[in-house]
Specification:
- By secondary structure, the protein is an alpha+beta fold.
- The chain has 2 domains: about 5-100, Aminopeptidase (3-Layer(aba) Sandwich), CATH 3.40.630; about 130-285, Aminopeptidase.
- Helices cover about 25% and strands about 35% of the residues.
- It has 8 helices and 14 strands.
- It has a 12-stranded mixed beta sheet with strand order 1-2-3-4-5-14-6-13-12-11-10-7, sandwiched between helices. A two-stranded antiparallel ribbon has the order 8-9.
- The longest helix is centred in the C-terminal third of the chain and has 17 residues, at about 235-250.
- The radius of gyration is 20 Å and the shape is globular.
- Bound molecules: coenzyme A.
- Coenzyme A binds near residues 23 and 84.
């Protein structure tokens, strides 16, 4: 098989849209991410060309002050799958990431995505932790009207200051939102201002729970994507109810919620969640750390 691994450019747009149309029944976010990847100086988008067409792509984004290589959007055109192209691209991007000087590469995937898990394992990645995920169409949502905790909408800086009182709320110091992950440092959190909105609940100067939410554009509409972290079920359900109401009130297509698995029982038994959304779905964070020897700075 003749193929070429190369950087992706605007001239590949049509092939990228074809790939997205053939992925997840058209629910792919790729068309909304593509331009941003090409314009962002922290992004390196690679693809595979066969017979003059781009048939696979994957983006590497340098985050956490360029200490983490975030791998996102691995796609192979449906008609070119199971021929080893994703394996070629994954190896290439991990090697490229090591050359940029990052200390680790990471990505999230659905815990049932066998190909994605296998590809990560083959390049030496390990599963760090899982988080539950659910979707609910806003037409089916029945938010309960009585929040148990007082939630306050705060900016990223205030959130970070409050977070310092309860860093253990977030496993591994890694904040998960909308299938992405960032280390909770001041600069990473401040970089989320304008993209995400934060809600916190503080008691006696200690952060007891928080959530963050953002718009998620997909080909079939806009979803409200949120993550909740809390220290007990009551606080968790308060944030859950708030975000489900928010999604319904603001006429989002659907709500996608991400949560620590310790709250799965509370989530699945909540009357706010429609029956068809009570599924045991989860994402997992994979990571490979580089020794300082393998990570050498070659990229300007
Ligand atoms: C996941 C995806 C990128 C795999 O691409 P691919 O080019 O077909 O993968 P490869 O041919 O390199 O296969 C790598 C390994 O994964 C396995 N694999 C591929 N597709 C698989 C599937 N649907 N189920 C189980 N295993 C699978 C292959 O068997 C192969 O292992 P093997 O050589 O030991 O048999 C492709 O199916 C895709 O674009 N899917 C939709 C988007 C997606 O899920 N992206 C990844 C998560 S964001």
């Amino acid at each position: 098989m003749d193929y070429q691994v190369r950087r992706v450019t605007q001239s590949d747009r049509e092939d990228v849209m074809t790939i997205a149309r053939l992925t997840w029944g058209g629910y792919d976010y790729l068309p909304f991410a593509f331009d941003g990847w090409l314009q962002d100086p922290n992004c390196y988008t690679f693809g595979i060309e066969i017979d003059g067409h781009l048939v696979a792509l994957n983006n590497l984004r340098l985050i956490d002050d360029r200490s983490t290589g975030w791998m996102e959007g691995l796609r192979v055109n449906r008609y070119h799958r199971k021929r080893g192209l994703a394996r070629v691209l994954t190896k290439h991007i991990v090697e490229f990431a090591a050359e940029t000087g990052v200390s680790r590469v990471r990505y999230t995937t659905d815990t049932t995505n066998a190909a994605s898990l296998k590809l990560g394992q083959e390049v030496g990645m390990q599963r760090i932790f899982d988080m539950g995920v659910f979707w609910a169409g806003t037409d089916k949502i029945e938010p309960s009207g009585r929040p148990g905790r007082r939630l306050v909408n705060v900016n990223a800086e205030t959130f970070y200051e409050q977070f310092l009182s309860s860093p253990d709320l977030v496993p591994n110091g890694t904040l998960i939102f909308d299938w992405k992950a960032v280390q909770v440092t001041k600069s990473s959190v401040l970089a989320l201002e304008g993209k995400c909105r934060f809600w916190t609940s503080v008691r006696r100067g200690v952060l007891e729970s928080f959530s963050l939410g953002l718009d998620r554009k997909e080909m079939k509409g806009i979803e409200w994507s949120f993550t909740v972290y809390a220290n007990d079920d009551d606080a968790f359900l308060s944030h859950l109810g708030y975000h489900l109401s928010y999604a319904k009130k603001h006429k989002y297509n659907a709500a996608m919620g991400t949560y620590p698995l310790g709250f799965r029982k509370a989530l699945l038994s909540s009357p706010m969640i429609p029956k068809e959304s009570r599924r045991r779905f989860a994402l997992t964070l994979l990571e490979k750390q580089f020794s300082s020897k393998s990570a050498r700075s070659l990229v300007s």
